[in-house]
Amino acid sequence: MTKTDLTAPSSAPVAAQPPPEDADERILKAAGKLFREKGFAATTVREIASAANMLPGSLHYRYASKDDVLLALMNRAVKRAMSAVRTAIGDVKDPVEKVRLALRAHLELLCNGDDSLYVLLFDWRSLPAGAREGVERERGRYESFWDGMLYEAHGSGRARPVLDIELVRHFGFGAINWVATWYRPGGERTPGQIADTFFAYLAYGLIHEPSRPKDLDTHFAAVMAASLKGQG
Amino acid sequence: MTKTDLTAPSSAPVAAQPPPEDADERILKAAGKLFREKGFAATTVREIASAANMLPGSLHYRYASKDDVLLALMNRAVKRAMSAVRTAIGDVKDPVEKVRLALRAHLELLCNGDDSLYVLLFDWRSLPAGAREGVERERGRYESFWDGMLYEAHGSGRARPVLDIELVRHFGFGAINWVATWYRPGGERTPGQIADTFFAYLAYGLIHEPSRPKDLDTHFAAVMAASLKGQG
DNA sequence: ATCGGTCTTGGTCATGCGGCCAAACCTGCC
DNA sequence: GGCAGGTTTGGCCGCATGACCAAGACCGAT
């Protein structure tokens, strides 16, 4: 497979003509794809190297261990997610609209972007215990960033008065992140459309207005009271 | 570790006094726990055997391969989920209430029950290609069962007229299943409370009534139209 | 008391893994 | 045009893995 590549650029003799710093990128991209498809533990260093078009030794030169590759990939995922969301909301002021745009950006990155975000979310267990703390901190910052947006939206007065922001974040993240388990590119819905639909579900609910209890604020307060501390 | 077990029952010489059919159960239980904690590929047959209090050879007697253990575990997960939900709804007639109870049952099994459901949901990639079809069929039946409940609830007239049932299921499953990634037993919310809160979010939405657009049915129809076929 | 079949034991085997390295290589700088 | 470093090469090593099995222990039936 490595030697029979007839589509290689003309008479390339042996090695080292692709751009130098691109090698790291190739490794992470290949690793992301493989980790996503088969999981971290089921992927071998040789496979990553081969997919990145290099020999195992070369990979070892950049990353001392397989764990290091995963670590770098996850850190990159947080960085990209954060920056994608920041870019998406731009200078929009409406705090509810910001949440919608952020949701779109997150889902689009997860579905169309590279695989690092998927690996961050779904291969969490593979991270060696020692490295977990660092990634956890970065991931925590991303989640706090979301909490900030949600607090803002909540503070705007347009959300229900009684809400548990952390639970809301978990709820939304779950719905959105789970898309990665069933979404297939080329389906009849784009990630942006899925995100908008989910946002509408989240914002307005699935029960038809005529069929709702009269005082939903009271209803929510009751449910939330049962949900906080104490088993009722 | 195997030989220094001083707490063994008195003078037990070598083998074979635990109940006979319990061995399978011990294997699946141990495997579920380990697969959940470390993932399928990162778990060794020896670890499973040791956790099930037997030697690797004994495990091999019951299951020809590690894949077989995973397969049995996953099939059991679908069976248990289906039966847990069926039991939970009992003979309740209200189709919306049925969904709430089903949600509770699913989440309680995922959080408090054995680990097989978690493995089914999160270690999907580890299933060998050959065995995938069978599990997929069973899992599909569970999902169809949910779709049936959702259709019923939708047909009752209490849900919004324009909804994509499959998308709704994905949405709810995502929110609920994701709980398994952050829930820790002994926290301040029980699975049942989380499920009820999530159901309230889902049913009634997070935006406060006074701040909603006037005609939400039209709003939803527009979002859904954009979400089905065509990129708009 | 003995027997037959079910189940467990404790170890072996080939395979493929992650980690590693010394030598060759290429490229830009003096 | 030669030199110094960063980079790649291709293969090696010790080890843990999944799969497997022959021998024996146990138990209920006779």
Topology:
The structure is a homodimer of 232-residue chains.
Chain A: H1 22-38, H2 45-51, H3 56-62, H4 66-89, H5 95-112, H6 116-122, H7 129-155, H8 165-182, H9 191-204, H10 216-227
Chain B binds a DNA duplex (30 and 30 nucleotides) through residues 2, 13-17, 20, 23, 44-46, 54-58, 60-62, 64-66.
Kindly estimate the percentage of residues of chain A that lie in beta strands according to DSSP.
under 5%
| Quaternary status | homodimer
Q: What is the mean pLDDT of chain A?
A: 86
The helix tally of chain A amounts to: 10
Written as H for each helix and E for each strand, in order along the chain, the element string of chain A is HHHHHHHHHH
Largest interface: A-B, 65 and 65 residues
Which short descriptors sum up this protein?
65% helix; DNA-binding; mainly alpha; Tetracycline Repressor, domain 2; homodimer
Description of the structure:
- The structure is a homodimer of 232-residue chains.
- Chain A has two domains: 51 residues, Orthogonal Bundle (Arc Repressor Mutant, subunit A); 159 residues, Tetracycline Repressor, domain 2, CATH 1.10.357.10.
- Helix content of chain A is 65%, strand content 0%.
- Chain A contains ten helices and no strands.
- The termini of chain A are far apart.
- The interface between A and B is large, with 65 and 65 residues.
- The structure holds a DNA duplex (30 and 30 nucleotides).
